[in-house]
Structures are given as C-alpha cells and as structure tokens.
Amino acid sequence: MVYSGLEFGQFFELRTDCRFATQALTPAARMVLTLVQMQFIFLNNREMDMLRHKVVAQFGLMHMIATNLCEWLTVIIEEAKHEIHHLHLVGGLASLNDSAEDDSDYGGHHVSSRASHGAQQGDCFVSDILGALVRNASPFLFPCTIEYSLICAVVLFEMWKVTHRDHGHSQHGGHGHRGSRDPESPHEHARSASHLSLDCTKAHKGLFGGIVVVVLTIISLILFFVLNEAPGFRDVAMLVVIVCELGLYVITTTAALLACYQIRALKYTKKSGGLGLDNTLLVMAQTGVFLYNVFSVLAYSSMGVMPRVLVSELIALVQTICQTIFVLDATRRRCSSPREYRRKPGRQVITFLLVSNMAMWCVNTLEKSRARSRPNLMKFYGEWPWTLIVHISMPLAIFYRFHSTICLFEIWKACYKLKQHQPQSMSLGVRKHTDSERSERSEREGAG
C-alpha cells in the first residue's frame, strides 16, 4: 500500500502536459485490489459459499492467482530496471559514463525516465520529493510487495484446491460444508491464533544467545556500511561482512542439526492434507535461497578467488536445507508424557534459531538485496543477468528468513503443549490425583 501510494503521488509531480490517466489509475487500482483481496481472503469462508457456484469460483480464484503472479513479475522487472538505470548513471556501464557525469541528480522514476526516454522526458518532473522517497525506501518496499503477492497466490491456491475437494458436500448447502473445515486451512490457523497462551520455560538461554548474535550482526553491518564508504577500505568492509555471514551460518547450521537431534524425543504424529500452508510457503521461499547461492557458488568456484566467500555461500545453502528439514519434521512433533512436558527437549535451540533468523533477515535485507553489493559476481555474469538474478531470488530469500521465524514460533508454541496429544480428561485426572496427594500429605503433617 505504501509503494502504490508513493507511485500515485508521483503523478502530481509531473507537468500537466506530461500526465496520462493510466499513471494515476494503475497504482490506485492496485491499492483497491489489495484491500478487496485482503477482505476476500479473511471473510470468504464465513460470508461466502463458493461451492454453490463452483465453476465461477474456480475461474475467479485462478484469475486472482494469475493476477498476483503477474504483479510479482512486474515488481521484479521494475526493481531490476531501477537498479540497472542507477548503474548506468553512476558509471557502471562504460557506454553511459559521459551521461552519468551530466546527470548528478539521479533518483527513482526520474532516473528511469532520463535513461529511457531522453532529457526531454526527464523535464516532465517538476520536483523530486516522492521520487527521493521511492529511491530511499525501495529496498524495503519492493520485497514487501513481492512477498505479499506470493502469500496471496498460495492462499488463493489453497482455496482453489478446496473447491475440488468433496464435491458431494456442495449439494447440501454452504453451511454444511463450512462445518467441516480443512484443519490445514489458513482460517483455522487464524482462528486458533486468536487464543494465545505462552509458556516461556526452557527458553531463556536460547533467547539471550540469539540476542547476542543479532547484536553482533548489526554491529558488523554498521562497520560494513561505514568502511564501504571510506576510500581504500572497501576490501576490509567485504571481509567484515563475509566473516559475519560465515560465523552466522556455521552457528545456525550447528543449531539446526542439534535441534533435529534433540526433538526426536517427542512423538511424531502423521497428518493428512500435505505440507500445510506455512510449510508450503517455506519450501517455495527456499527456491530463492537456492537460486542465489547456486549462482554465487558457480561464479566463485569458476573465478577461483575469495575462498571464504565460496565457503560462506556453501554453508548458507546447507543451513537452509537443515533448517527446512527440521521445520518440516518438528511441525508434526508433540509432547506425549509429563516427563517430555517438563524437559521440553530442543526448546532452547529452537528459541536461538528463531532469533538468529532475524539476524540473517537483516543481512539479506540490508546487504545482499542490492546487485552492486557483489561486484565480482556482477562482473562475472554481467550487469543485466546478475541484477535479474538478485531481484528474482533475494525477495524470496528475505521472505524465507521472515517466514522461518513464524514457523519456528509455531513449533516453539505448539510442540510443548501436553494437551495437544493427550485427552483433557487424562490431564485433569493427573492434576486431581496430584492435588489429592498434596492434601493427604498436609493432613498427615498437621496431625503429626
């Protein structure tokens, strides 16, 4: 919504003779679509009965899925175009070095118009206030837009699958169908999440360890940005961030393996219905991590330089594999005995991973999201190919880290509840038996 609002506001920075209706209607329509689509996703299961008009519902859902995928691709292309034009104007390409010296006031759509339509089109902008806002906020707004489109597409696909399931229920009216909800549907997750109770025992060590990792990561990123701007210290800045990433990935890989080993003590419960919404989003987002790391490994191994960076990218790939395997396994684990409930095996490590993924999210968002942050890879692949690779893969990698914290929190909250696996009457019986023993003990002590 912020990105579309800024684009809409840029329409009023144009001269009157350069304005076209579509320049304002497109972002305005995108904002309306965002609001209406969110309302549909949250209210359709309660207010609508899609199975009464199944063909229309399937067509509409598939059309909305295609719209979100098109929006996803459009934003990727726009983001890549902005950075490529920025590289043109700062002298990244030798053919435009002269024009880069003339245009020192580059930024946002102002840059794009000058690079592609000539100086006369650039004169259409009477001010550059919102253009500067778009330029400064684009590293954060573009990934949010891409991730929003991805989440909506997956949620709508889950709804589309429901319309193919249990065809006989559609003949008995909507209320009968809504009574048997899919346990893996996003609405069940949303409804169960409204009743939140947290037990923070066996988590403090992992929490403090994760906070230390986040603090050290932020300090390393600050040093990277400061040294990168200082003349003659660019190599030192790269060394700082590479050592930070290497240490971060080694620690979190070890933590993921340790968590896999410790959580085996909990009982594994089989569930029907596939991976579920959260795990599907996690696996889809991991493709972005694979894409970025594989291209990085291929380039660094071919160049034969900077072995530390090659090792860092390899360990990052291993870390995501180990963490995803752990999440897919742990989502089906539950406590089955009072002893497991008291011990809570693996919870400290899960807490550490939950907080550490925030640190890796900071690295991806602030340092890796720009194609020019890896000049060696840009030189190896070329400006256009590497920029497209980064802007296709990195929003998914950022979303992987963000969504991993959500999945790990769900594991942290749900796996260690005894009532999830045992009947409530059994837990009440154990509690009553314990209370009766305490009362008898107190009576004996009083009599003594």
UniProtKB/TrEMBL annotation:
Q: Where is this region: Disordered?
A: 168-191, 427-448
Give GO terms: molecular function aspect only.
Answer: proton channel activity
Does the keyword section mention Transmembrane helix? yes
GO annotation, cellular component aspect: plasma membrane
The answer, when asked if Glycoprotein is one of the entry's keywords, is: no
What name goes with this protein?
Answer: Proton channel OtopLc
Q: Where are the transmembrane segments?
A: 20-43, 207-227, 239-261, 281-303, 309-328, 349-366, 386-412
Subcellular location per UniProt equals:
Cell membrane
Q: Name the Pfam families for this protein.
A: Otopetrin (PF03189)
Q: How does it sit in the membrane?
A: Multi-pass membrane protein
Q: Which UniProt keywords apply?
A: Cell membrane, Hydrogen ion transport, Ion channel, Ion transport, Membrane, Transmembrane, Transmembrane helix, Transport
Q: Which family does it belong to?
A: Belongs to the otopetrin family.
InterPro entries (alphabetical): Otopetrin
Q: What is the lineage of its organism?
A: Eukaryota, Metazoa, Ecdysozoa, Arthropoda, Hexapoda
State the organism of origin: Frankliniella fusca
- Ranges of biased composition (kind: Basic and acidic residues): 179-191, 432-448
